[in-house]
Protein: Trimeric intracellular cation channel family protein
Amino acid sequence: MFFQTIDILGTIAFAISGVLVAMNKRMDPFGVLIIAFVTAVGGGTLRDIMVGVEPVSWMRNMTFVYVIIGSAIFAVIFRNYLKHLRRSLFLFDTIGIGLYTVIGIETGLVAGLHPIICVALGTMTACFGGVTRDILCNEIPVIFRKEIYATACIVGGLSYFLMRFFLKDENYLFVIAGLVVIVIRLIAVRFQISLPSLYTSEDSDKQ
Amino acid sequence: MFFQTIDILGTIAFAISGVLVAMNKRMDPFGVLIIAFVTAVGGGTLRDIMVGVEPVSWMRNMTFVYVIIGSAIFAVIFRNYLKHLRRSLFLFDTIGIGLYTVIGIETGLVAGLHPIICVALGTMTACFGGVTRDILCNEIPVIFRKEIYATACIVGGLSYFLMRFFLKDENYLFVIAGLVVIVIRLIAVRFQISLPSLYTSEDSDKQ
Amino acid sequence: MFFQTIDILGTIAFAISGVLVAMNKRMDPFGVLIIAFVTAVGGGTLRDIMVGVEPVSWMRNMTFVYVIIGSAIFAVIFRNYLKHLRRSLFLFDTIGIGLYTVIGIETGLVAGLHPIICVALGTMTACFGGVTRDILCNEIPVIFRKEIYATACIVGGLSYFLMRFFLKDENYLFVIAGLVVIVIRLIAVRFQISLPSLYTSEDSDKQ
Structure:
């Protein structure tokens, strides 16, 4: 029930973020729907096929399909209103990565995988939908933009396993880990924080 | 038998379309063969790994492999003849998406999935090989070109499930659904029909 | 034991090649780690999900994860030293494709697949990590650069099955096949050898 709920919230957030990027690329209604779908289910699909959960989750649960179609229609109808909120619309994407990181970690735990693998699964679940959306829409993939992105998922995922030493309630742990991801990303974008690059000199010779 | 036949026809159509795009990019013979392969099996591979049919179909049936290699050699030998047909060569791609949409729907039905999921599987089977071909060849992916593409697959797929209320013979249903996809795409390209974009104003501020 | 060893060597080679490309793109430390991971496990992941080995290999064997993290840290610490070796750093990538081709073939043999499929699996295992690295880093994918790349994997893979008529010891066969890949690639880059393109005239009309 708990996971069902946050999974649906993340799905809505990502579907709307997909609609907004696709509309900005002047796609037709079916193109917008496809990008909404890819953004919402891309990360979970990669996670499921790597772990071996097949048919993948969204194919066995029509709730996701209806939620995505509904969110896409909602976002299209209220597009003029959403456009005026453009500056803060990265919020949808940010909420999405927080929720999906937690879902990815849970899938790993259920499959009995190592904590580091669980963090990797969380990060993939959170980032892959957005990366695919951006590649298909010919935008610079989110994980390459200056501000912290995947890093927030990794830190949030690690925080889950660190907090487990002190806190026993799984639901609290998941809520806090998701909030860690969201807060790190919000702070990074608000204050334009980015980690230093490892690049050391100006030469750019190709191999 | 019936599905085997249309699957092979779709494979030939996509393999040849892959050869033509790859040759246009001045790839060497092995590069051309790889792109022919990716175009022909890309969509079916995505479909199979999402549904859980593994090893994926083309790995368990050497017919596909021989057909792809044969089609690639044929297309390379007759490349000068095919080049003069360039203007109408999108036909191969169009026939391919019609046939693959039907194959994808059938896979979904066999796995007992919901009609909407079957339509999604058909669309993915039809579009993913061409999208991968275009990304690897650095072309604008087919689903972004102006004319209707994925939309034809979605409408064709929906027509299958709508017609099922009136028509009982599965083979006829599949033939008609495939033709719906092909006819929509042909008409769209011939008359340069595209759906209106949902974009509403000229501002292009990034979030 | 034997395969475990060459798998780890290939993993180190690809992880370091990923670190070098990512650092050149001025990524932050987590971005560098992610690209190292993708480069090292991308090909094996594609191979495993297509054959149906799930959860994929690297998720069930923490050795790979530790080796990748260790290689990434090593490459970052000694980046100034490695930079001066830039001209010969394609060596890591070359050793990687030789080792991964062999691993891919072995996976196919274990799954009882046809020799041609095994060669395809070897080529995918070897090439897909680097292709994904390059797409994510916005470089021209390795398989499109002028020199022979995938071709070396295909020829090396075919040589395995041809030599099997004369040689019975599997380990020798794998070592020789891996060396064939590496030597072909080294010679091709050293002498700037490439296969002739199949392109025949200067017209570049799009279909």
